[in-house]
Amino acid sequence: MDKIYDEYYYKIYNWSLKKTNNKEDAEDLTNTIFLAIFEYLNKNMNVEKIENLIWKIASNLWCTKAKKYIKEKSNVLLDENLNLEYSEKIIDKVIYKEIIESIDKSGLTEKENKAFRLYYLNDLSVKEISIILKTTESNIKYFLYNARNKIKEKYYE
What we know:
The chain is an all-alpha fold.
């Protein structure tokens, strides 16, 4: 177990630091990940590739942390049975909610701005937004795509 810790500590810590953008949170997440890894290995279950196990556990724990952050930040109840395949979407929502609160239109059209705010601040689905804005779902997806790109351009300049 010491070998695993020595080999993966800095990799997991750096990954955690990129996810959390905070030294203390990264340390907590790293420690939690290693605790979960060691608990799993103590069950004496057969593990084909230890690296796959490590990153699976890390990803799952990050998703759990992101879900808690979203609940605390927006006081929105999330579906407890949220599949991990949507973890990227969860993380995107956290990022875009933070950005939208401080953004002043950033060159977005009126419909892009409305769609963006309804999707990321009000947690409405694409279908619900299409009804509100009286347009097709594919148009809403297009508006969201354009809005995300415009915001990314502004913040990565």
